[in-house]
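Predict the 3D structure for this chain.
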Amino acid sequence: MFDAFVILSPIFFVIYYSKSNQMKDLETQLSQNIVIIIQNKKVYLYNKMDKAITELIYETASMFTTDDVIVVSSMPRYEILNIPPNSAVFLEILDGWEDGIISYYLTKVKTETIDFEGSISLKDRSLSGMIKLPQIADCKLVKLSSKNGYVMKLNEEDE
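Done. Predicted structure below.
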């Protein structure tokens, strides 16, 4: 039995290593082909792929820090269905009341050939008003849930 373990162990490592590399490759592919575009305070999610996304779930939150506090906003979770290839979907208007840095995270993506669940931080790119946006798709955003925000005080002294 011990000999079988020794023989199977390298095979397991190769399979595990191969799957983890495939996952990293998929995450890289998704983060390069699904991006956030911000133009004139309007936020869009852009599907740069040549294939439609049948289901996409993302979360968003903002965070800011001071010398002694970290504040994280609530984190709503949204679903978008049937995003056409090479198209953008309007997400929101930034009204100026957001505090800190706003981040967007992919948590699920499905296409004909991709079935991803995990967490990928989306890159955002601000465009000037002179750059033409990609085709805007008329896709509905459905709010699935929301996690509560929180405040974490740093350097609290014990009394």
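Residues 1-18 have pLDDT under 50 and may be disordered.
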